[in-house]
């Protein structure tokens, strides 16, 4: 999934501690990341073939609804449990994990707790004072001493960050055994560097804020993030927190193996950055690398390497904003003979309802994709 997307973030199961290398759950269906879909129903993949009519399906988009079963194709798989390993307490006793969550993550947290006997779902009172500032309360706080605690967060807008940070700072101070913060989408990831004097790297600001989470009885907080946009951002975090970077690509690989045309799939990357990030995990597929070139005020997408002819091409990236690059990639891939074009992104943002550009017209074709 994040913001209007907090997207389909569909990575390997969330963990309270760093998982064993190579251990990844496999999804039951769909390209999407198991995020809650408020009010949105799963829509079936529309199969379109043809040189200029390859349809574009989005996998991994969270929180984007479609009207009357039409519009953006969002596939929602069965949500996998929050695979938190059992953590031993004193005298070898196994203790369950207490899972707290923000309001936006309620549905996902409920599904996770329902499928895992080790997880006990807990609630927080997200009240507000008349002036609009948070009036927060953690029920039965005295009973969580010595327990392993996790918090499922969503920093989908600046307005919800402060109230969640307040809870995140408070939980470790309640004498808990350990604390894990699950923040699937790091929202300031696209603002990670300064190019001109005066630019503010807000990714650094948020990372430093999270680095000051109080230490629990078990030590520093474990912070789980999926497909952080800029890998160098891991160095923004201080030593008082243990960032664990996961990926949604294992879910994609499992899903692709289930498709009827799994032997005819090629992976396309919209630019060199996406290729560098993901190619090692997908190198057993034929690959297509696109690049964006500037012509006047326009950015044109071209195929730099690879052959799309007759293939089901899956565009892979970590983050999509307006979706313009996906559409341009689809056009060039279809023009080069792709039989079908799909897309998988861990985080679909789509601000200002930009996902609407993917809605089909009355004729069933995508207006921006039709020949």
TrEMBL record:
CDD domains: PRTases_typeI (cd06223). It comes from the Eukaryota. Keywords: ATP-binding, Kinase, Magnesium, Metal-binding, Nucleotide biosynthesis, Nucleotide-binding, Transferase. It comes from Triticum urartu. One of its GO terms (molecular function) is kinase activity. Its EC number is 2.7.6.1. Residues 99-211 form the Ribose-phosphate pyrophosphokinase N-terminal domain. Transmembrane segments: none annotated. It is an enzyme of class 2 (transferase). This is ribose-phosphate diphosphokinase. GO terms for cellular component: cytoplasm; ribose phosphate diphosphokinase complex.
């Amino acid at each position: 999934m994040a913001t209007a997307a907090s997207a389909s973030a569909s990575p390997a199961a969330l963990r309270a501690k760093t998982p064993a290398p190579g251990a990844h759950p496999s999804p039951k269906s769909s390209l999407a990341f198991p995020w809650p879909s408020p009010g949105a129903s799963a829509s079936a993949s529309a199969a379109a073939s043809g040189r200029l009519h390859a349809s574009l399906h989005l996998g991994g988009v969270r929180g984007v609804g479609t009207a009357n079963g039409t519009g953006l194709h969002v596939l929602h798989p069965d949500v996998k449990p929050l695979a938190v390993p059992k953590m031993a307490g004193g005298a070898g006793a196994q203790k369950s994990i207490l899972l707290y969550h923000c309001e936006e993550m309620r549905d996902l947290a409920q599904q996770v707790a329902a499928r895992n006997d080790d997880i006990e779902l807990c609630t927080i009172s997200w009240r507000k004072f008349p002036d609009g500032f948070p009036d927060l309360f953690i029920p039965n706080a005295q009973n969580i001493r010595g327990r392993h605690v996790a918090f499922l967060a969503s920093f989908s807008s600046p307005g919800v960050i402060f109230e969640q940070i307040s809870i995140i700072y408070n939980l470790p101070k309640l004498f808990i055994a350990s604390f894990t913060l699950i923040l699937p989408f790091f929202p300031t990831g696209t603002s990670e560097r300064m190019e001109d004097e005066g630019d503010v790297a807000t990714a650094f600001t948020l990372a430093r804020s999270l680095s000051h989470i109080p230490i629990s009885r078990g030590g520093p907080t474990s912070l789980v993030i999926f497909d952080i946009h800029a890998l160098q951002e891991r160095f923004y975090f201080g030593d008082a927190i243990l960032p664990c970077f996961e990926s949604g690509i294992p879910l994609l690989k499992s899903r692709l193996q289930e498709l009827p045309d799994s032997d005819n799939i090629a992976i396309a990357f919209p630019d060199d950055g996406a290729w560098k990030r993901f190619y090692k995990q997908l190198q057993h597929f034929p690959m297509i690398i696109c690049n964006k070139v500037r012509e006047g005020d326009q950015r044109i997408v071209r195929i730099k390497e690879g052959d799309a002819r007759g293939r089901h091409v899956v565009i892979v990236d970590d983050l999509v904003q307006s979706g313009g690059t996906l559409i341009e990639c689809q056009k060039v891939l279809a023009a080069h003979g792709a039989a079908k074009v799909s897309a998988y992104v861990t985080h679909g943002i789509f601000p200002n309802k930009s996902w609407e550009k993917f809605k089909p017209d009355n004729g069933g074709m995508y207006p921006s994709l039709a020949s």
